[in-house]
Amino acid sequence: MDEHAVITTDVSGAITGWNDGAEALFGHARTDVLGRPVDIVVPEHLREAHWAGFHRAMAAPAIKDLAADLPVLCADGEVRNFPGRLLVLCDALGTSLGAMAIYAPSGSTGVRPFG
Hints:
It comes from Actinomycetospora atypica. By secondary structure, the chain is of the alpha+beta class. The protein has a single domain (5-103), classed as PAS domain (Beta-Lactamase, 2-Layer Sandwich), CATH 3.30.450. Helices cover 21% and strands 31% of the residues. The chain has a five-stranded antiparallel sheet with strand order 2-1-5-4-3. A hairpin with a 5-residue loop joins strand 4 and strand 5 (96-103). It is globular and about 40 Å long. The protein starts with a strand and ends in a 12-residue tail after the last strand.
């Protein structure tokens, strides 16, 4: 499997997009995650930090390079690290529309902010 996993959310953090790569990499079927909070893939011990950062990014979006090896809670209950990039999606006026996460199926960014 070499397709990247792509997840999109709205400004509240509800999953609005889940591609075939996300199904294959993380094990959750698209029909099971659409409309649910994105923390379905955030390890429990990181959820508070995730939501604090998410809400900050939605309130004051800024373009940053947020590429790192990120832990993902997979459907089988295992936490696995994948090289990923997090992006805030904005309209032409800079208003947040949601977020996107793109994960590669293998490799490393060399950055592991969570150990």
